[in-house]
Amino acid sequence: MAAMLEVKDIHCGYDGTPVIRGLSLEVNRGEIVAIIGANGAGKSTTMRAICGLLHPERGQILLEGEDISRSPASANIRKGLSYIPEGRRLFPKLTVRENLELGAFTVVDRKVIDERLEEMFALFPRLKDRSTQTAETLSGGEQQMCAIARGLMSAPKLIMLDELSLGLMPSLVEKVFETVVLINRKGITVLLVEQMVQEALEIANRGYVLQTGRVVHSGSARELLDSDEVRKAYMGM
To answer: What is the mean pLDDT of residues 42-50?
Structure first.
C-alpha cells in the first residue's frame, strides 16, 4: 500500500515553545488513520503543521512524495489536502450554500461547483433543507455536517478531521462516524484526531498515540484497542 502522507521527524511549536518533538507518522492511500492522546499532547498542532497553517522548524512533510513542509495551506488544498478544524470554523453570517461554495474556491467551472453541491446535498440531505439559512442558525450537528461538506467541496484526496464529535449530542456522534466511513468508501483517505478514542479506533485501520508531542504507541486499530495501557489511559477501562 502506497503512502499518501509521510511526516518525518517534525519539530514545531508556537513563539519558541516546542509542542511537537520529532514526530513521525504515515497515512497510506485509502486508509483511515486515527491520532489519539490527551489534551495538550500536540494532536491539533500536528494537523495544523500537515495542512500548512504551521510550518515545522525541522523535519519533512510529504504528500504523495512531494515536500509540502513549507507550502501554505491554500496551496495544499490545490494539491488535494483538506482540513476540517476543531470547532468547525464556519462563516456564521453566510448561508449554508455560500459556506459550501467557499470550499470550492479552487474551482472556476460553475458547472463543477453545482455538481459538487448536489453531491453534498445528497450526502447530507439536511443541508439541502437548510441551504438558505445562515450557518449561525444551525444546530451543532448541522454545523458539523456543513464543515465536513465544505471540506469535501475541493474534492480532496486526503481529508483531515479534527475533533469531529466535540460539542455534539451523543445521538449524533454515531452518525458522524458513519459519515466518515462513507467518505472513505468513496476513495478519500482520512486522517482523524478524535477525543472519543474507542469510537475512532473502531472505524480506523491504524492509529498513533501522542504524548507531549511524541508518538509513544502505534499499530493497527485492533492492537491499540486491545492494549491495556491505551484502554486504561484513554478509555477509562
So the answer is: 95
